Amino acid sequence: MGYSYPPSANMTRSAIADFPMPITTAFSTEIKRVSILDEHGSFDESLGKGLIPDPDLLRLYEAMVTCRILDEIAFRLQRSGRMGTYPQNMGQEATSLGASYVLNKDDWMVTCYRENCGLFWRGVPMESILLHWMGDERGNAMPREHFTTPIAVPIGTQMLHATGLAWAAKYRGEKRIAATFFGDGASSEGDFHEACNFAANLEIPVVFVCQNNFWAISSPATVNCSAPTVAQRAIAYGMPTIQVDGNDLFAVVKVMRDATAWVREHGKPHFIEMVTYRLGDHTTADDARRYRDQLEVDKWKGRDPITRIFNYMKSRSLWDDAKEAALRERCEKAANDAVARAEGIVDPQKNEFFDSMYHELPADLVLQRDTRQTHSLGQSESASLTASSSH
Ligand SMILES: Cc1ncc(C[n+]2csc(CCOP(=O)(O)OP(=O)(O)O)c2C)c(N)n1
Ligand SMILES: [Mg+2]
């Protein structure tokens, strides 16, 4: 049992005698888990009916298929030397998409690097994400009207950014909230705990969305979190928390809707653990076959969020093979057009980076810009070398 009784050995005898109170329960809780449409096609009408209107479901399905196709294309771009690296989203499309579907357009959506589907739903152009992974800074210039931040590769930073953004919104009396996305591995970073602690204690309206895909590159989630759920970490911060089947778009929408409503009403944070799985490698720089059991991957392929909606729509006669073929053609064209736009972007002018560094450019940099030479640097370097060698 996890209580500390009898009192520790270094307590004095009289202190033990003064410890007459019975053992009571200071706090107890349970973690709820929500699932509406499972991989066998079973649908919980009581929770799911009317949750996503059919026309929206068709659009959401198209968004997931487009994202999956873009993943496949990006993988080939990287393999043929046309992209630096790329983290596939394959298998995790429903988490960010369901959340993005629920968020207001002017709420902050503060992501890491595996939330393409949700970002595209918000209107972030596909080429922005491609440009980022092609190493073009312009892929990080998120249009202001999308209320998103650039892709965050340093693990954990974005949770603090989201907390700050939501705090600023609350301070200014704005209605917007923030939702931030991170992995199971990130929930072991100090930044995660600082963000949760700060948000809970200062009552900041943030939804913390952990996408537990069971792996942090080659580290299994059990190494990062020894508790049975990631969701329970939020209890330590006094936050409401819940677990959801993250491959079930309906359940994600339901849980996100309840959580955002709660956050808006109370102005405090809420935690959601979305249980999912990355079907691909961590990034194109990884080969997951070296550390993952193929049987595990196959099991999760059977829980694919896209197949689940496909089967559901077919079972309700909303969908058929002809519609599927037409949709795939449309999605492929949209993804290929985005690649063409990303690859066709005009190279920046060489002087442009001088323009954004200073309000007023110092004279030595004016010289560098105008001559495209670094004599000013060279001069000061050789001057300081001379100075140090004379001592
Ligand atoms: C601060 C920091 N440490 C280490 C890394 C290297 N790194 C990149 S992704 C990753 C694993 C992240 O795992 P998780 O949070 O579960 O996200 P997932 O990739 O599974 O979505 C690590 C350790 C990094 N990018 N930043
Ligand atoms: Mg992970």
Describe this structure in words.
The chain has 391 residues and is an alpha/beta fold. It folds into two domains: 33-343, Rossmann fold, CATH 3.40.50.970; 349-377, no CATH class. It is 46% helix and 8% strand. The chain is built from 16 helices and eight strands. It has helices at 13-17, 45-48, 54-79, 93-102, 116-122, 126-133, 157-171, 190-201, 221-224, 249-266, 294-301, 305-315, 321-343, 352-355, 363-371, 375-389, and strands at 33-34, 108-110, 178-183, 206-212, 215-216, 219-220, 241-245, 270-275. The protein has a six-stranded parallel β-sheet, with helices on both faces. Strands 5-6 form a two-stranded antiparallel ribbon. Strand 5 (215-216) and strand 6 form a beta hairpin. Helix 3 (54-79) packs across helix 5, helix 3 packs across helix 13 (321-343) and helix 7 packs parallel to helix 8. It starts with 12 loop residues before the first helix and ends with a helix. The chain binds thiamine diphosphate (TPP) and magnesium ion.
